[in-house]
Structure formats: structure tokens, C-alpha cells
Amino acid sequence: MKRFAYSLMVLALCASVLIAQDQAFAIDSSIGGSDNGSALGTQSGQGQAQDQNDNDKSQKRKKKEKGVADDASDPTTFSDAVAQSVLQQLTDGLEGHSDRRMLSAFDASKMEGYLSFENQIVAFFQRYDSFRIHFRIAQTTTEGSKGVVLVDIEMEEIPRSTEAQPVRKHDQMRFEMERGKKGWKIVDLRPRDFFS
What we know:
Radius of gyration: 31 Å
Distance between the termini: 70 Å
CATH architecture of the largest domain: Roll
Shape: globular
CATH class of the largest domain: Alpha Beta
Order of helices and strands: HHHHHEEEE
Number of helices: 5
Number of domains: 2
Mean pLDDT: 78
Structural class: alpha+beta
Strand order of the largest sheet: 1-2-3-4
Largest sheet: 4 strands, antiparallel
CATH topology of the largest domain: Nuclear Transport Factor 2, Chain: A
Strand content: 25-35%
Helix content: 40-55%
Number of strands: 4
């Protein structure tokens, strides 16, 4: 009985949709059939084209404004905000367990011994299943074109082996950052073995 009632409801809904579509088609045919209707259709088509053109211009303007905003988020002068942003990128890579994302915070072309550091980080990520990290910027200074940041950092490393205990580290690290083609990146850090 319930199935029968359900079937009737479905049929009623389908019928009402078909009737509405048929009425809409009849209205469209009557407008498009006369010469006057054709002119209206052309005018509405032109209006739609104008709306699309206006929409494209608006999107281009937004992209241009976004480009200006991107320039503002990548300032030429070093600041606490710049240091925070770069260190957050490093943290996101660690906590997301992505060695590529972490290494994207470094400038491979300007960092001395980058290849051995990269190998160290890959091995580090293979040894541990996950990381929790907390940092606090203690001091930021500028030395020529470089920004120098002293950071109090705490990290918990969860080993892949279920038998091993988590490793907790705490240290003050020194990061040197420099602005390149892709914005501010880390070009040196001490001690390097913190991430090992």
C-alpha cells in the first residue's frame, strides 16, 4: 500500500514537471515565432553578451587587484610578519608530513649544502610518522639583504615504530632568510641537526 502511494506521488511530480516544461516551451515558441519576438530575442542575446563582457572585465579587475595584494604579502623589507609566514610554511610541511612542502620554505640555489640538507630531511621524514611543532619568534634583525630570526622552537617527533617513544626537542634556532624570485626563503639555519 505504501509503495502504491509512493508511486502515485512520483507520477504526480513527474507530470507537473512535464506540464511546466511544455508551458515554458510554448511561451518560448510564441515569443520566438513573431518578428517582434525575434528582435526581442536578439536584444536579450546582446544584453547577455554585454553582461558577460562586464563580468569578464570585473574578473580581470579582481585578478589585477589580487596581484597588488600578492605584492603586498611579499614585501621587499624584512619584518616579523615575513619571518612568521616563512616559519609557518616550514611548520605546515612538518605537521602535514610533507618533506616537499617543508623544503619549499628553503632557497635551494642560495643555501650552502642544500643537497645534503635535503637528504637529511627526506631521511628525517622516513624515520618519523608525524610531528608536532610550536615556535615563538624571540628576535628579528636585518643583516644587509638578509633577515635573521631567533626562534624558540619545540618539537615532538612520533616514530614510525610503535615500540619507540616520542622524541621531544627544544632549542633556540637561528634562521637566515633572503628575498628571491619566489619571495622570502630560508637560506641558512643553525643548528641544522635539529631536523634529524
